[in-house]
Specification:
Length: 95
């Protein structure tokens, strides 16, 4: 089953986010859930990171919630809001 996670950073966390990124990237490679796609959300000019977007494949929501709870970005209190939703992929434009 696919899940999305849409995360918006708290104001003023740019430096702390940069410090935690190596641990976050390492954590993503542990694959407790399958990461289909991820990347930073940016300001409209692309200059500033304002959050994160993930698409996961997991057995259930509990697996995604557990993964999120152990993410170094969560432990560093980077995100102001996190919204996780089940996702039904209908179109794949890769070709």
């Amino acid at each position: 089953m696919l899940f999305t996670m849409f995360c918006i950073d708290k104001p003023g966390v740019t430096e702390r986010r940069a410090e935690v990124m190596p641990a976050h990237v390492e954590y993503l490679s542990t694959e407790p859930v399958k990461l289909v796609m991820s990347g930073p959300l940016t300001s409209d000019d692309g200059e500033n990171i304002v959050g994160s977007l993930y698409v996961f494949e997991a057995d259930d929501r509990a697996a995604v919630d557990a993964f999120q709870a152990n993410d170094p970005l969560v432990q560093a209190d980077i995100w102001e809001t996190v919204e996780t939703r089940a996702f039904n992929k209908r179109v794949d434009n890769r070709g």
